[in-house]
What we know:
The protein is of the alpha+beta class and about 250 residues long. The protein has a domain at about 5-35 and about 95-230: Alpha-D-Glucose-1,6-Bisphosphate, Chain A, domain 4, CATH 3.30.530.20. The chain is built from six helices and eight strands. It has helices at about 15-30, 70-75, 130-135, 200-225, 225-230, 235-250; strands at about 5-10, 40-50, 55-65, 80-90, 95-100, 105-115, 135-140, 185-195. It has an eight-stranded mixed β-sheet. A hairpin with a 2-residue loop joins strand 2 (about 40-50) and strand 3. The longest helix is centred in the last third of the chain and has 25 residues, at about 200-225. The chain is globular. The mean pLDDT is about 90.
Amino acid sequence: MVAIKEYRITNNCTVEEYQVAQLYAVAQASKNETGGGEGVEVRKNEPYDDDKGKGQYTYKVYHLASRLPSYISKIAPASALELHEEAWNGYPYCKTVLTNPFMGKNFKIIYETQHVGNDRGQLENALNAPPEVLKNRKVVHIDVANDKPDKYKPEEDPTKFKSTKTERGPLQGEWMKTCEPVMTCYKLVTAEFIWFGMQGLVETFIHKTVLQLFLSFHRQLFCWTDQWYGMTIQDIRDLEAQTAKELEEVSHL
């Protein structure tokens, strides 16, 4: 059975602010993860207007060799050491699909996200999922302040950060019940790994990894408030273009 979980992540910002914050944080994370021929390769970043709707399309390749045990990276084919990501950002709804060339149709992770303003994570079906999905879905609430990441960084701790530009924070106690402004990301994640004897184990590992990624990313996002606050979407597009250029240069070092 395919593993389906819906992650609900409440944030101390507006929906409009979150769009800028998310794109800013993604660009910064891409730079931090790239170097020496490894990391993130941006192949496409362009507007789309088709049967999927209207928004921004990105196609990225994540090179993973250095993140795997050396004995695996030495014997595995190059296509097994890559994750390909296609994303359709038609904000406030977004869809992302992760695949692996080596696994082909046997591996896929699908993220569907709905961003809802003035919301604290209580909508029963924000993504309008069909009954068969709801039947198998498990809901996971993420508290970006009080949930502890695997790798703790004091500079990315929302319980200690206070924004000088917005005076938001620190996020403490039952902050999700009272913070203003507020919005929630509803992320429906479907993980599929078809490999006899390993499917359940790998899909469980995928969701554990996804949980930590979402938690760490949104802790960063809040603690970087003074960096992204006040930026426009055009500022972000300019930053993305510069980041893509820098990633291309660094990847060839």
